[in-house]
Automatic annotation (TrEMBL):
Residues 108-301, 328-436 form the AMP-dependent synthetase/ligase domain. It comes from the Eukaryota. Belongs to the ATP-dependent AMP-binding enzyme family. It catalyses: butanoate + ATP + CoA = butanoyl-CoA + AMP + diphosphate. Transmembrane segments: none annotated. SUPFAM superfamilies: Acetyl-CoA synthetase-like (SSF56801). Residues 506-540 form the AMP-binding enzyme C-terminal domain. Residues 50-104 form the Acetyl-coenzyme A synthetase N-terminal domain. This is Acyl-CoA synthetase short-chain family member 3, mitochondrial. Its EC number is 6.2.1.1. Gene3D superfamilies: N-terminal domain of ligase-like. It comes from Mya arenaria. PROSITE patterns: AMP_BINDING (PS00455).
Length: 550
């Protein structure tokens, strides 16, 4: 009989179900050869499938993306798939009109799937689990859109959302989109100063916030931070809608400015979706590396919706009826969430995995939830995942760990493991052409660039700053997008992103006191790496201690 260890080795390499194993060692040796043959055949087929999709997306992008766009519900069909007459201001699905909220929520109710779960809210911090169906989500979103409409929000207006990771934040985003307005979601970890610059820049008609957020070991005072931000700037929104979370201290409302979320919802009305041009902004997203004047990426509605629908299967291998959880890392919570909610794919930042590994290096907390029969893939993005964490995750979660390389500006993966196409870490179809870097040889580092036009879903400009959009990201001939990352591509087409060349150094040398600067990465137990800035001061300029905020 074949040993259990041998079976586990073969299973771990080829992901072969136990029922495929034969009785004898000789038979197991034969299936091992068989697995290798099947693996090679599957790999060959995957390469052919990927190459076919990739070539079509590059050589005939209009036909390719028009076919994908047909999967959505349009109020008015486009007259032109691609307009690249004024690069780099590329436009997709020109003349078309749709509503993203309808495609995300209403269509599922209309197709008879209103009873299906749309959102699972699972908070290991507050010990709450809440499941929301598509019909319930539709009702809540329609009502909150009525709340926003009563406060004067209409097509093209901005709504800034500064909330914890709770269902009401998703409801606020969808309700804003329902009215044809533009939402800007601000990271809940920002203090008053950082929040104030984004409010002053976006100039939202309404701000939606909450009284408190909860993190392990601390409470985040959202409402006081918002009050502090508004006291720093002259711009004032028409209204602030404040959600006072049950179980926490009620935060007093500012007279003539703040209104209560629950009261307004109880006195609201259902609203319909407002179609918007596909080229109109869906949301503004501030880049994480912002220094000085904020950079707000503008995401067009049509391209975003088309790419989101296409990528769910082709990149992530997620079929209808499957989803992903959001959880705060502790040693066992991810395992429980995957097991309890039958999760198929999980998208996570490497920092969360390092936090679990730090507190539970042997994976003991997760063993009681094994095996995770529904779980197929762990996707990591947002930062570099070190080899040690990746190998630990593969072993402990018993799943492939698949890398994705995104940017806020691109809106979706530039390179990825395309699960639906069966291709590991290659340029994502439609994004990166063949001549993607400056000329290099022997895997020498080169600047990673993307040939224009950028695909659907990419940013169309920076909010109220077309000039900065052109000069920051594109070459003088408007032929390439500069990712500001360096890397290489090997002979087999695999892409490696090695280093960042963003504006961190520029932020330091912009100081009147600094002559030269360098930034390097240093190891960090949780983050993997953190930047260390080394500065050479100008002679005679330093009179005391300097503080730089990167």
């Amino acid at each position: 009989m074949a040993s259990k260890a041998f079976k586990n080795i073969v299973k771990s390499i080829y992901r072969v179900p136990a029922r495929h194993f034969h009785a004898s060692t000789s038979q197991c040796m034969r299936i091992c050869v068989c697995c290798q043959q099947h693996k090679q055949t599957a790999q060959d087929l995957s390469i052919k499938k990927y190459d076919k999709v990739f070539r079509r997306s590059i050589e005939d992008p209009e036909d390719f993306w028009a076919e994908q766009a047909e999967q959505l519900v349009w109020d008015k069909k486009w007259t032109k798939v691609l307009d690249n007459s004024k690069p780099p201001f590329t436009q997709w699905f020109v003349g078309g009109e749709l509503n993203t909220c309808y495609n995300a929520v209403d269509r599922h109710v209309a197709e008879g799937n209103g009873g299906q779960i749309a959102i699972i809210y699972d908070s290991p911090v507050t010990k709450q689990i809440k499941k929301i169906t598509y019909r319930e989500l539709w009702e809540q979103v329609s009502l909150f859109a009525g709340v926003l409409e009563k406060q004067g929000v209409k097509i093209g207006d901005r709504v800034l959302i500064y909330m914890p990771m709770i269902p009401e934040a998703i409801i606020a985003m969808l309700a804003t989109v329902r009215l044809g307005a533009i939402h800007s979601l601000v990271f809940g970890g920002f203090a008053s100063k950082e929040l104030s610059t984004r409010i002053d820049h976006a100039k939202p008609k309404v701000i939606v916030s909450a009284n408190y957020g909860v993190e392990p070991g601390k409470i985040i005072p959202y409402k006081p931070l918002l009050d502090g931000a508004l006291n720093m700037i002259s711009f004032k929104p028409n209204k602030c809608i404040i959600y006072n979370r049950p179980g926490f201290e009620f935060t007093p409302l500012v007279k003539n400015r703040d209104v209560d979320y629950d009261f307004e919802m109880a006195n609201s009305y259902m609203t319909d979706c407002v179609p918007v041009p596909a080229t109109d902004p869906l949301y503004l997203l501030y880049t994480s590396g912002t220094t000085g004047l904020p950079k707000a990426v503008v995401r067009p509605s049509g391209g975003h919706a088309v790419v989101l629908k296409w990528s769910m299967w082709n990149i992530y291998g997620i079929r209808p009826g499957e989803g992903k959880p959001v959880g705060t890392p502790d040693p066992g919570v991810y395992f429980r969430i995957i097991k309890e909610h039958q999760v198929a794919g999980l998208f996570v930042a490497p920092t969360a995995l390092r936090a679990i590994r730090r507190d539970d290096p042997e994976g003991l907390f997760g063993k009681k939830f094994m095996p995770l029969r529904s779980f197929r893939n762990m996707f990591v993005a947002g930062e570099h995942c070190d080899r040690e964490t990746m190998e630990w995750t593969k072993q402990v979660f018993d799943c492939p760990v698949l890398d994705n390389w995104w940017q806020t500006e691109t809106g979706w993966a530039i390179t990825s493991t395309c699960v639906g196409l069966g291709m590991p870490l290659h340029p994502t179809p439609g994004v990166m052409k063949d001549d993607y870097t400056t000329e290099t040889k022997d895997m020498e580092l080169g600047q990673i660039i993307v040939k224009l036009p950028l695909p659907p879903g990419s940013f169309s400009t920076l909010w109220e700053n077309d000039y900065r959009f052109k000069t920051t990201y594109f070459d003088s001939k408007k032929a390439f997008y500069n990712t500001m990352d360096s890397g290489y591509r090997d002979k087999e087409g695999y892409v490696a992103v090695m280093s960042r060349s963003d504006d961190v150094i520029n932020a330091i040398i912009d100081s009147q006191y600094i002559a030269e600067a360098a930034v390097i990465g240093v190891p960090d137990e949780l983050k993997g790496q953190v930047p260390l800035g080394l500065c050479v001061p100008k002679h005679g300029e330093i009179g005391g201690e300097l503080e730089f905020k990167l």
